[in-house]
Every structure is written in C-alpha cells, then in structure tokens.
Amino acid sequence: MTTNEDNNIQKEISAPQSTELYIKIAETQWPIIYTPEYNIGFLGLEKLHPFDAGKWGKVYEFLKEAKLIQEKTIVKPKEATQTDLLVVHTAQYLKDLKLSDFVEGIDEWSLNVAQITEVPPVALLPNFIVQRKVLRPFRYHTGGTILAGKLAMERGWAINIGGGFHHCHAEKGGGFCAYADITLSLKFLFERVEGVAKAMIIDLDAHQGNGHERDFMDDEKVYIMDVYNRGIYPQDGFAKRAIKRKVELQHYTEDNDYLELVERHLEGALNEFTPDVVVYNAGTDILEGDPLGNLSITAQGIIDRDHLVFSKVRSRCIPILMVTSGGYQKTTARIIADSILNLHKEKWIKCDGAEAFQKSNLKQPDKISSLPRSRSEGLLSRLRRTIIRSQSSQEVHDVHSSESSSLTSGPDDLGGSSSSLENSDSSWSSGNDSDIDSEPAPENTSDHKCQPAPENMIVHKYKPTPENNSIN
C-alpha cells in the first residue's frame, strides 16, 4: 500500500463512521465492562513479561464471588475494528503491527509486536498467532474503553476492568500498549456524543502516560494531570509538554505524601478546568514491591486513592470512566476488586436495576437445574458441571430454608455491600464459567433510574445515543 493510499484511508475516516462498539445496555446491567477475551495466554510466553496477563479475569471473579456482579449483569464489549482504530491510529501504524523490518519480502513475523509487548520471542511467531493471542485481546480492551466513555455519560460512571494503554499514541506503541484506547475513547465522545466538548485525563499509574500526552499535545479540549515516578520508563520529555498539572514522584514515595499530593493537585486541576467527562487511569503499579513502579503505596493507599478520585469528581456531578492500566504483582487483582467494592459501599457507584435483578435470582432457584454447556466440553468439564449442579441444589435448599425462617424472624436486607470480598451481598449466582454462553439480560426501554452517586447529587445531563446499536 502506498503512502497516498494510506492518506486516502485516513481522510475517509475523518468523519464519524458507523461503529458497533457503542452498544445499548439494559437497566439490569452494571456499567462494568469485561469479557474473557481480555486475558492473554499463549505457549507460556506471556510469563516472560512481569505483567499479569490474566489479572482482568481475576478481578471479575473476585467481584463475582463478592456477589457485586453476575455474568448477566456486566457488559461484554465488542472487539475494536480496523475502522474504529483508524479514528486515531495511522494506517501505517496498523500495517506495521503485521510486518518485520528485518526480512524483506516476509510479512508474517511479528517484530513490532515483540517490541511493544517487551517479549522478544514473540518476534519468532507467525503474525496470525500474534493477532489472535495478543493483539485481539488488546482490541477487546480498546473496545471496552471506548464503550466505557458512552456508558459514563449515560450512567455517570463506568469501569472497564481492562484497558489503560497509556504508552501508545497514534503512530507508535510501547510498554505493553498496542492501541491508544484512552485517546480513542475521548475522540469517540467528542465526535459522537453531544455535550462532550472538554475532557480531563487523571493518570495515576506509576509511569508517565506519554501516549495520550503526545496525542493531545496543544489540544485545549483535554486537560492532563499526571502523577508518576520520575525515575522510570518512559521519561518522555517531549510528551511532558502536554501535561497541564505534572506531579513527579521520587522512588519509594509512601501513602501519606502520595495521597496528600494527589488530593491537593486534583482539587487544583478541577478548580482550573471543568471537564464534561473524566478518564481515570487507575494503575496499581504504585503498589509497594512492584518491580517496575518503584513506589511504596500500600493496598489501602490504593483503595483510598480511588475513593478520593471518585468522590472529588462525582461530587461535582462529572461523569467518570475508569481503566485499570498497569500493575505487575499477583495481588493487584484483589486490590482492584476491593477498591471497586469500597466504591460501592461508599455509594459512589451503584445501579438499582442491576442490584434488583440480582436479588430476584434468589426467588428463581429452578433455573439452576440445567446449567448451560460449553461447546467444547470434555470429560473433566462434565464432571465439574455435575459437582456444580450438586452444590447448586444444596444452595437452593439453603435458600428455601432461609426464606421459610424469615417468615417469622423478618426479611434480611439484601441491598447492603461491603468493602471486603469476604463480607458482601448475599445474592445468589449460578457459578457459570465466564466463557459459557448465556442469555442477555432483559432490555428495559424506560428512562434509566440508576443513581451513580449519593442521593443528594444531580445526575449529569446528556443526550442519549440513537436507538440502534450503530452510531452514524
């Protein structure tokens, strides 16, 4: 493909194109986005990078165990297509993800992806494998972040359990970031959602967010606050010029100093600039002991940080979308889940429709008698299903027993929540695997009633998207 042809493609997508990423969701679904397609795993090579390539699935499972969500009440995003990606990325960059610069005439190897993921052996794999096992999951993450922008405007908040690829910009990836999902999410909002003219990026990952900074250089519509360890990757001096409020940390910064800096500068940023939406890049690589972050923030410090950001933003009635970004220890998945549970406990995130739907499952135990089967189920899976069915039958017996006893002792309050995974809502979940097909949650066509913040707050006004799933 010639340079002129690449430029023509870029011109064609300069006007908003139709997309399938902006899907409608039911009132019975949380604006929490996840799909099993997020998780990366192939031939063990993912273990050569310190990133936990399965942490997103672990966060989902922890939230499910805590009874905050069920499989039917979360949102599964679609994969970002070439047309979607071209809203930000150049055609040449997307082409380069498929090419090797070393061997002339051979285009099936994966040098560029190996450099982006920082796993050199990936360069030796045929690109069709890399596309399926690495880039395809990244495209699902990206679709999730783009969708989170729309849902944040509709619900007041949204959380993509994945995403946060803040080192990638329009023309180049790096640092385990292949697609510029933060930039894409904001570009989609600017072009497709009425009333979104200004945005703020609050980047609290341990690393500088040089990708979105390069994309929004000299763009007055986007205010960037970045708090990062100045002594680690990427040390991108040019990109720093895009930061409106820069907070550079020293190695091993601890909770008290960190939280004081975040609070003071977040207050200052929100006083200087009033955005229509906030993108919160909530990296957990600030955790003490992280091999790449080199900071000393405790698990409770991360939970307090997330609460601080949501409370400051939502108390001003500003929609917020959160992505989980970096975090390179096995414990980070549980910390992310605990933080989300704490936000629910403190009523900064809630969805009455989803919680009511989950409670109603307690009254429908007959549905568990036949668990759906995976299309590729083997002997061990069938044995496991049999065990689950037996356990579920016992749970139904327990539910009936508790309901009978409540006739004399009074009904339990099933609407509460807790900030720990062990203390949570008692709504029943079928225990189905995330990769098992299930029926979608019922669609509710009435105006949305979910209040995303404490009851004395005003919900942000927005223009709803068209009735169909494709946005023109």
Question: How would you characterize this protein structure?
Answer:
The two termini are about 30 Å apart. The longest helix is centred in the C-terminal third of the chain and has 31 residues. This protein has a seven-stranded parallel beta sheet, sandwiched between helices. Helix 8 links the parallel strand 3 and strand 4. It is globular and about 60 Å long. It is an alpha/beta fold and about 475 residues long.
Summary keywords:
seven-stranded parallel beta sheet; disordered C terminus; 472 residues; 37% helix; 7 strands; 7% strand
List the helices and strands and how they pair.
Elements: H1 3-12, E1 32-33, H2 55-65, H3 82-85, H4 91-96, H5 111-117, H6 127-155, E2 157-160, H7 181-192, E3 199-203, H8 210-215, E4 222-229, E5 245-249, H9 255-272, E6 277-281, H10 299-314, E7 320-323, H11 332-345, H12 352-360, H13 379-409
Parallel strand pairs: 1-2, 2-7, 3-4, 3-6, 4-5, 6-7
Taking all residues together, what is the mean pLDDT? Answer: 77
Strand line-up of the largest beta sheet: 1-2-7-6-3-4-5
Uncertain stretches of 5 or more adjacent residues: 9-13, 100-109, 366-382, 395-472
- What is the helix/strand order? HEHHHHHEHEHEEHEHEHHH
Distance between the ends: 28 Å
